[in-house]
Amino acid sequence: MLHMIKLCVGISSVDELEHYRQSRCVKIAGQNGEFHLHRTRMRPKRREEIVGQGSLYWVIKGAIRCRQSIVDLAQEVDEEGRNCCDIIMKPQLIRTIPNPKRAFQGWRYLADGDAPGDLGEGDGNRNDAELAVELAALGLI
User: Fold this and answer.
1) Which residue among 87, 108, 121, 125 has the highest number of C-beta atoms inside a 10 angstrom radius?
2) What is the CA 44 to chain-centroid distance, rounded?
3) What is the pLDDT of residue 135?
4) 83: which residues sit within 8 A by CB, 6+ positions away?
5) pLDDT tens, position by position, for the chain (141 residues)?
6) Contacts from 80-84 at CB under 8 Å and sequence distance 24+?
7) How would you label 88-105 residue by residue, b for 16+ Cβ within 10 Å and e otherwise?
8) d(CA 47, CA 88)
9) Cα(97)–Cα(55) distance, integer angstroms
10) Is 52 left (phi over 0), alpha (psi -120 to 50) or beta?
11) DSSP assignment of 57-106
12) Cβ distance 3 to 110 under 8 Å?
């Protein structure tokens, strides 16, 4: 299984991303339910390893903080006639154990073994984002 990782530019928290994404749900022909789309210029070559099993991990304020399950990677053409890729995701944001990550451009592949674990409902103080970043930096979570 393979994942993708991307910077969430202009968003300062998971709550802000959740609010922003709620207003951008779309229906997709042939699919049941609502989905989120994120358009990117380059289409992953390792599509078969991602679709239906991988997630898009979002980097917010210098740390991986959440993920969304990837349903499909659809080849599209933008308004200017250039090829692009729509990352089609389930709308649910799953919070992860914050993992510090330096800035980069575009998206990158993320191996399953390198992906941070999910935060559970009963994780107590680990749900405090700032504390979790500090604990992760110290290697404690």
Assistant:
1) 87
2) 15
3) 73
4) 43, 75, 76, 77
5) 999 999 999 999 999 998 887 766 776 666 677 888 899 999 999 999 999 999 999 999 999 999 999 999 999 998 899 999 999 999 899 999 999 999 999 999 999 999 999 987 655 444 466 676 677 677 776
6) 82/41, 83/43, 84/39, 84/40, 84/41, 84/43
7) bbebebebbbbbebeeee
8) 12
9) 15
10) left
11) EEEETTEEEEEEEEEEEEEEE-TTS-EEEEEEE-S--EEEEEEE----SS
12) yes
**Which pair of structure tokens corresponds to residue 27?**
């229906």
Place of tokens 């997630």: 55
Query: Tokens for 113?
Result: 């073994």
